[in-house]
Specification:
CATH architecture of the largest domain: 3-Layer(aba) Sandwich
CATH class of the largest domain: Alpha Beta
Largest sheet: 6 strands, mixed
CATH superfamily of the largest domain: NAD(P)-binding Rossmann-like Domain
Radius of gyration: 29 Å
Helix content: 40-55%
Number of domains: 5
CATH topology of the largest domain: Rossmann fold
Length: about 750
Amino acid sequence: MQKAIRKQDALDYHSKGRPGKIEVVTTKETETQRDLSLAYSPGVAEPCLEIAEHPEDVYKYTAKGNLVAVISNGTAVLGLGNIGPAAGKPVMEGKGVLFKIFADIDVFDIELDTTDVDEFVRTVKILEPTFGGVNLEDIKAPECFAIEERLKKELNIPVMHDDQHGTAIISGAALLNALELVGKKIGEVKFVVNGAGASAISCTKLYVSLGANPENIVMCDSKGVIRADRTDLDAQKRQFATTRDLQTLEEAMVSSDVFIGLSKGNVLSQDMVRSMANDAIVFAMANPTPEISWDEACAARPDLIMATGRSDYPNQVNNVLGFPFIFRGALDVRATEINEAMKLAATHALAELAKKPVPDLVNMAYNEKNLTFSRNYIIPKPVDPRLITTVAPAVARAAMESGVARQPIQNWEEYEQTLAKRLGLDNQLTRVITSKAKKDPKKVVFADAENLTVLKAVQQVRDEGIAHPILLGNRERILAIAAENRLDLADVPVIDLLSAEADAHVSHFGHQFFEKRKRRGVNRQEADQLMRRRSYFGAMMVETGEADAVISGLTRNYPDTIRPALQIIGREDGVKKVSGMYILLTKKGPLFFSDTTVNFNPTAEDLVEITELTAEGVEQFNIRPRIALVTYSNFGTASGEDAEKMRRATELLQQKHPDWVVEGEMQAHLAFNTELVRESYPFSKLAEEGANVLIFPNLSAANIAYNLLKEAGELEYIGPILLGLKKPVHVLQLGSTVREIVNMVAIAVVEAQRK
């Protein structure tokens, strides 16, 4: 289990660079004076006049249709309580981030300094012209009920209080599937709901809408069972008051079928779980500590179906499965509200998705061979790329059928294609790689541990459970850097190759290296000397099984630094040329570039092998390679050494792999411009879908291309990933950030899992 996030790490994350987590970016050209004249005065007058004459054109000429307000007064922030609007702003920005990365919805977060319901409602109401929808967030009960109810009546755009309905929708889907697995009917089972806040009330209401019998529901608050004879109940609690002779949670649990926990940690005992009916269902959703831990609950009942709000156990009830896609569907049909039919549609869509075959991408993220509908998989995973194309259309359809859609969808197939293209795979790729690494972390040697950036990355991969780090370097220097920068590395092993205690280890590895290289000009003394070098020692640790991967030192001289790996670990069987691949994470998805770091001027035959290694590397991420061999010529339009080499390499690849999508030679822009390809070169295998793998004629071209793109395009990247070695060894380039190093470690761990 990963360690808790450190206070300083969280503060540094939010304060580094541009403070906060969000910014406004332009969506139109702004480079010239004409652009600015169109964006503002005088050109802006024209859309203003059009909207004045036709109010619905505001969706045509402005961002309103994709803009949601996340609005809070900070009175019920996460588990922090009433901390005020300013203190709650980081949470609201975070909600905006989730809207964007999961559903491509833009957000303005708005924090209101008021606890007065009338003032809150009035303020949001007069903001209506700005937004396409309103997400209410972190507002305490009972005010949240009144605010949402009034806004739904007074606004003509969709409004949802996610704290209420998000958990209800997700847990409702999980509940339907759990009941199906145990063969029980929702109208017959007995519920115990522990908690009586906004989320608990809304969850219970939704379960009733799904068919639960109110007479079979017992709700508890901090004072015990909510009974009809209690005099301290507000209207929200009173609707679920029971007439049964029960006083405590312990009494209510006896013979119950379903426990819904939306209260606080560790209030449910194993004995209470044992007292439930056969095939009990327990949703312990208090965060961060559930009402009962997964391990304790499952130990108490082997027939249990368990769910929590935690990501480190199966069946996570996570609101991110719902709100981005619910608003996506509502916005896309210009719904006037988010009604009960739309919430139920989202619930059923999520429940059905969990029963469908799971994409390899999701299996990979959770280190599973084949997730299938079962007691430990009753709800989809947050990284499932099908969520946007499943939940959003269901919500949109329900809006249309219930009469609240102002712009009905005409072509559903086209709509789903549009949804799929909104987000590139890059939004999932790094999360998938990291998640897979965490499932089976490996021992990773860091050969350049006397570096602050490296040590920060080491702490992160250790804390997150991505890898078990081992440090090579001067122990005193490493500990001094850690202490000076308040890094916690106390339990990370350090091997100081210049210390007396390392002599035996160095000598042992020296002997082994000598035996490997004694007929390659290396004597025993030289072998021992080389083992004092961290790159050689680290490679030998991997070769002997003392470690699983090496992250070598920060360097400008990449080819020289891989020599120890080649001499000690060696190439994979059948591989003649190792190569380097970069992953550039773009809006349209990841792009894979090769060879960017190793081979200066490969032959056509070399390029075939480089392409094969790259394709194999891409397939590790469950992505089908679409390969373009790029140069200055398009299918014979120009002659020259590079053009002819790329043409020959393409021919060889197409002969060896007739089922591959591989094309060339071609100019780089053509690899992505499918419209131009269809018009001019309809025979091309890239005519329907553009390339995601680019193979370059030489090191110079590849290196220039990826560096230009990552810097000028401000793209995140992963690499260089060394391809073709028997075991994972990766060399960091000078200037690598903590994030880049962490990504490389995750890649190395995933490789080690496979080899």
